[in-house]
Specification:
With 497 residues, the protein is mainly α. It has helices spanning 2-24, 30-52, 56-65, 70-73, 76-92, 95-104, 109-112, 115-131, 134-143, 148-151, 154-170, 174-183, 188-191, 194-210, 213-222, 227-230, 233-248, 252-262, 266-283, 286-295, 300-303, 306-321, 325-335, 339-355, 359-369, 373-390, 393-402, 407-410, 413-429, 432-442, 446-449, 455-464, 467-475, 480-485.
Length: 497
């Protein structure tokens, strides 16, 4: 009687299911509904078989393809096999497939928290930590809701500590190491252990040397590196070395960050800053050198240090030669270059500029550096003589005009000698106009000036005689006719009675 009651109830349930499929539109009649039910039963058996074989993807494809209802997925048979497959996959290391079972088969929390699943998850999590697959291990924590009690178990903490130390020693990305601390809630006692602190110290020095300062700072913060370690000779040496490099590249703020984070003593800071300042001056990075003065509060004593002053004076001279007058002025102002050194360098540069014909640039330096008029005239005279000897007539004349050279200077023996020699040469080469220009601007004496009309004779005489001696002979009172007729007269020793 009980069997008949059960069969009738079962039949009614099945009939109700068929009706539901028709009402929902899944089937148009009872025959179609019955066929659909048979397919679902067949699919259910296939899913169970695939799960037993560990073929999770194929099983989920059937769920999607045949729209397997939640009732079937939640059936005791499917859930039991899904749990077994999940445990098996965890033990075999297939965390991704095990996780997929949770989502696709809607594994309830009760099953996930079962001793069997949790044991398999813990075991796999430890294995992944030992293999260095930390991200997969943390995925197990998240997906299988591993309780804090398990995370704090000696086995898990030991594996996490070992992996953390190995990664520190291997130079692994700092963020990955920190992920272990965060995800596995590593206690302070472990972080402060001698093994971890020793590995963290080594890992902190490496990024300092390689330029990954942010990583070194992260290690200080996450591993709570004690002051004793920060002040150790190895760490301080690496920090100073990196600071010097940063200053040399002009990264002053980054260098200051190292000072703050690694507690560099003020005495050492000043020494490093001085070294960086000298380097930048030698490299011509003036603004960055000055930035060190400002940001490190460099005292006057350091600025007046012979090495600093030498580098600053060299940088000033270089800036002047390259035409960076503004930089030269900055150096003078900020490094307090003595006036004597400034004037000397400025005069040398004025001479160089005049010799190159850069008169306006020379005038700029005169104005900027307040060169005394007496010194200006001496420098202008020197430049004028040089240009005459080099044949740069227009530039030599430009000096006369722009610097208002007085007649006394024009008539000096050195200027007249250079002007006459250049005039004679120009006549010998046939450049009469240029020669006349020299006569006019340098007020050449009439005795020499008359040679303008005797170019052919001058040309022949210059083939065999020195220009300077020829000029002295003419100035001694001998005419071109006399010199041409009696060439032996061309001598600095001959005088006309």
């Amino acid at each position: 009687m009980e069997s008949e009651k059960y069969t009738l109830t079962k039949a009614q349930e099945e009939a109700e299911k068929l009706k539901q499929k028709i009402d929902s539109g899944e089937a148009s009649n009872y025959d179609d509904a019955e066929k659909l039910t048979e397919r679902e039963l067949s699919a259910k058996e296939e899913i169970i078989g695939l799960l037993k074989e560990g073929r999770v993807r194929d099983a989920t494809q059937i769920i999607n393809k045949f729209h397997i209802p939640e009732e079937t997925i939640q059936s005791p048979e499917v859930q039991s096999v899904a749990e077994e497959a999940m445990i098996s996959l965890l033990k075999n290391g297939a965390v991704g497939n095990a996780t997929q079972i949770i989502y696709k088969f809607h594994i309830p929390e009760e099953t996930i928290q079962s001793p069997e699943v949790q044991s398999a998850a813990k075991e796999r999590m430890i294995g992944l930590l030992k293999e260095g697959r930390v991200r997969d291990a943390t995925q197990i924590i998240n997906k299988f809701h591993i309780p804090e009690e398990t995370i704090q178990s000696p086995e898990v903490q030991s594996a996490a500590k070992e992996r953390m130390i190995n990664w520190l020693k291997e130079g692994c990305f700092v963020n990955h190491v920190i992920e272990i601390i965060d995800k596995f809630h590593i206690p302070e006692e472990t972080i402060q252990s001698s093994e971890v602190q020793s590995a963290a110290k080594e890992r902190m020095i490496y990024p300092l040397k390689e330029g990954y300062v942010d990583d070194a700072i992260k290690i200080i913060e996450k591993f709570h590196i004690p002051e004793e370690t920060i002040q150790s000779s190895e760490v301080q040496s690496a920090a100073k070395e990196r600071m010097i490099r940063l200053l040399g590249w002009g990264f002053t703020d980054d260098a200051i960050q190292i000072i703050d984070e690694f507690h560099i003593p003020e005495e050492a800071v000043q020494l490093v800053a001085e070294e960086g300042m000298i380097y930048l001056l030698k490299e011509g990075s003036i603004d960055n050198a000055i930035q060190i003065i400002d940001k490190f509060h460099i005292p006057e004593e350091t600025i007046q240090n012979p090495e600093v002053q030498s580098a600053a004076e060299e940088a000033m001279i270089y800036s002047l030669k390259e035409g960076y007058v503004d930089d030269a002025i900055k150096i003078i102002d900020r490094f307090h270059i003595p006036e004597e050194a400034v004037q000397s360098a400025a005069k040398e540069e004025i001479i160089r500029l005049l010799e190159e014909g850069c008169v306006w640039d020379a005038i700029q330096i005169i104005d900027e550096f307040h060169i005394p008029e007496e010194a200006v005239q001496l420098v202008a005279e020197e430049g004028m003589i040089y240009l005459l000897k080099e044949g740069s007539i227009d530039n030599a004349i430009q000096i006369i005009d722009r610097f208002h050279i007085p007649e006394e200077t024009i008539q000096s023996s050195e200027v007249q000698s250079a002007a006459k020699e250049r005039m004679i040469r120009l006549l010998g080469w046939g450049y009469t106009d240029d020669a006349i220009q020299i006569i006019d601007k340098f007020h050449i004496s009439e005795g020499i000036a008359q040679l303008v009309d005797r170019q052919e004779e001058i040309k022949e005489l210059l083939k065999e005689h020195n220009t300077e001696v020829l000029i002295k002979t003419i100035e001694a009172g001998f005419t071109i006719e006399e010199i041409t007729r009696f060439p032996f007269l061309i001598s600095p020793l001959v005088t006309k009675k």
